[in-house]
């Protein structure tokens, strides 16, 4: 089995789904309702970031104490608003996602599918259940586990290994994402990286970060090409 792809880790936002800005709006609404900050999200960039690091940055900007109580105050309320916006906004699957996942699952020696995301776990679940994707993934790591994306990658790698019975080598892992952050965190665990330009980053910009593959969307590569 050495050398075959045993674990495929997916980013969520801009890779599997587009939420129409539901996450950003839920962040803004939570800061407005819980902390009295109606414009809290206007000065931060969300692409490729972790939820916890974003909350920490906004706390710093507005001199809010970074206490466990304040983080809990935010994340206790955030899922409510996220769920509301996911059902109000124009959200949908990225191109080729269902066919690509089906192709992976139909292989005789199918790899384990997992998540590698900057979302907190409940946010990831709400987003993916909206499109019946959650149950496709057997493992994963989230912003609850660590606020640094490279550390999240390491945790996802370890958890995949626990379920597989042994930790796969980096070359037996593929990370799929839509930002430079996804490319770098995949490299941090020695994985192959498939970059997709479905989340806003231009294809040429993604190529500058030298992923293993860079494509417009998941319709442009077959599972056979990826796993060869």
Tally of contiguous helical segments: 9
Q: Write the element-wise H/E pattern from the N-terminal end onward.
A: EEHHHEHEHEHEHEHEH
Total number of β-strand segments? Answer: 8
Q: Name the strands of the widest sheet in spatial order.
A: 5-4-1-6-7-8
Biggest β-sheet, characterized? 6 strands, parallel
Give the domain tally: 2
Per CATH, the architecture of the largest domain is: 3-Layer(aba) Sandwich
- So what's the overall shape? globular
The CATH H-level superfamily of the largest domain is HAD superfamily/HAD-like
User: What percentage of amino acids are in beta strands?
Assistant: 5-15%
> Mind telling me the CATH class of the largest domain?
Alpha Beta
What average pLDDT do the residues reach? 95
User: Percentage of helical residues?
Assistant: 40-55%
Computed Rg: 17 Å
CATH fold-level label of the largest domain? Rossmann fold
